[in-house]
Amino acid sequence: MTIGPDIKEVLAEVGVGYTILRDSGNVTGEYLSYKPNAQVTKPFIREFFLEASLSYDTKIVSGDVIQFNTTEDNYIIMNSTPALFENTVIKYEAVLYKTNVIVTILRPSVVRDTQTYLMRTIWTSIKADAKALFASPMFGIDLDTNEELGLIGIGNHELYIPHSYGAQVLDRIRISSTEFYRVEVVKSRRYKDVDVLDIGEDVAPTTSTTTSSTTTTSSSSSTTSTTA
């Protein structure tokens, strides 16, 4: 007889309730236990990375975003590995990355204006309310570069997002009405179903909404987009 159900009962009694956030419909009723990452002396890692234990029949898969029911903190599931006992899955061990930004991902397309015959860029929202982990260079200052990190690029801004968001090179990442970045590299093989984006300053001169467009001569920091 497997001990998976017993572990599940313990998690329900002493663990943390969470909701799996999915466009197709949220999944509720699951519990996990967690502990800080082993590198607890590093403030950024202590704040943003957790190691968690999940029940043997969890619906979680890599790339999911979950929300703790009590604190409403959101985490990306970076991986989920089965723990076996007598050739049976008794639980899953997972690594969670805490999100710290909610972004909109916009994709450009160039069209010719029927009035002026000039080319203009139309920005279409492909994902709104996208939860992500934004890592800027300052987060790497105190990290020992001799250690195997696999987490943060010291030199570039990086954005950790689920692969299901579908981000591509040259997409625009809008964090706020005045903060924009351009996707320069998509690293899709570092983690299963999680992409790491190298992002840089977005200086695209024209912007538009998904339904109508406006052409400007200023940088993206003065975007007048009204949707997404």
Explain how this protein is built.
The chain is mainly beta and 228 residues long. Helix content is 7%, strand content 50%. The protein has helices at 4-14, 43-48; strands at residues 16-21, 27-36, 49-55, 65-68, 74-85, 88-98, 101-112, 119-135, 157-162, 172-176, 179-191, 194-201, 207-208, 213-214. Strand 11 (179-191) and strand 12 (194-201) form a beta hairpin. The longest helix has 11 residues, at 4-14. The N and C termini lie far apart (51 Å). Mean pLDDT is 83; it is low at 138-155 and 209-228.
Secondary-structure map:
Elements: H1 4-14, E1 16-21, E2 27-36, H2 43-48, E3 49-55, E4 65-68, E5 74-85, E6 88-98, E7 101-112, E8 119-135, E9 157-162, E10 172-176, E11 179-191, E12 194-201, E13 207-208, E14 213-214
Antiparallel strand pairs: 1-2, 1-4, 2-3, 3-6, 4-5, 5-6, 7-8, 7-10, 8-9, 9-12, 10-11, 11-12, 13-14
Number of distinct beta strands: 14
Q: Termini distance?
A: 51 Å
| Apparent shape | elongated
Biggest beta-sheet profile: 6 strands, antiparallel, barrel
Summed up, the domain count is 2
Task: Indicate the CATH topology of the largest domain.
Answer: Thrombin, subunit H
Rg, nearest Å? 20 Å
**Numbering strands along the chain, what is their spatial order in the largest sheet?**
1-2-3-6-5-4
CATH class of the largest domain: Mainly Beta
> How are helices and strands ordered from N to C?
HEEHEEEEEEEEEEEE
Mean pLDDT across residues: 83
Helical fraction equals under 10%
Report the uncertain regions: 138-155, 209-228
Number of helices: 2
* Portion in beta strands: over 45%
